[in-house]
Amino acid sequence: MSLRPYKQVDVFTATPYFGNALAVVLDSDGMAEEEMLRFANWMNLAETTFVLRPTQPGADYRVRIFTTTTELPFAGHPTLGTAHAWLEAGGAPARPGVVVQECPAGLIEVRAQAADDGGGHRLALKAPPLVRTGPLEEDVLEWALAGLGLARTDVVAHQWIANGPQWAGLLLRDAELVLALEPDFAVLEGLEVGVIGPHASHGAHAVPYRESPRPVRRKGARAELEPLPAPEAPGLPAGTAFQSVVASAPADFEVRAFVPGEGLPEDPATGSLNAGFAVWLTRDGLAPEHYTVRQGTRLGRAGLIEVSTDTEGIWVAGQAVTCIEGKVRTR
Fold first, then answer.
1. Which residues pair with 245 in a beta bridge?
2. pLDDT digits (tens, 9 = 90+) for 22-57
3. Burial of residue 3, with CB atoms counted within 10 A of its CB: 0-12 exposed, 13-18 middle, 19 or more buried
4. 47 is catalytic
5. Which one of the listed residues 33, 34, 47, 142 is annotated catalytic?
6. C-alpha dist (Å) from residue 320 to 22, 79, 82, 285, 313
């Protein structure tokens, strides 16, 4: 038996336990594929990665990425989380500030900033090209609509955005609709589907309210915008003062990712899906070149993903922080 260094990383958050967890087994050379899959299944996380010596020139390390049931050629949050774990363990990229990951999808570039005071890194992966694109076929669209409880009028546009995972992407009319979805995972079985919708405001706006001795909490996408109690207005009875508060939308877009059949049928924060959305939406003028995404809200998470475009490509960025570290026993 061998003891190998291990880290459990939270990705797309600077606050532990609010992002998407990732198991990373470092120094994994010599492990059999069957053992990797068994360990990933036992961990029961969205993904588990295994870091090995690279085989391609220019790569800093090689990674294998497993869900609870299968191996993926590429995935986003495992790419960022593995880069964080490798750097934290003392890895030194050949090109300062740029980690090059080898995986079955090819060489993936990850820009890395120095660790912050909490030990986390801010990382950005270069979105890989789509390996499948174009509008969803009619039967696939009907499948997604039935599983998500949507009408055709709810969907602004749809597209295949496969870049490893075979994502079917739906652009919905707004973030509130994204958050309200109650998917039927039995119906969606066999389909990997992601949904995205814009928040009502991309900037500051006034939220009118009336102060009440027993305020009624609003539910849904605007719950976090509920104003703080305001002082009484002079000359008005208690509980009748009207005020307003300036608040901003939590992000430009809300995203949810559904992967029925896996240990987590809804993924808390998804790099590959957001990379696919970024390539599609910016290409077709459905999103600006720079925007932010919130994901994981319905799961009690607070993933924050930043998308930006420059002359080198489209970048999907977020923070990562280690929550657990130690050693794992393997053969």
1. 207
2. 999 999 999 999 999 999 999 999 999 999 999 999
3. exposed
4. yes
5. 47
6. 10, 11, 10, 30, 22
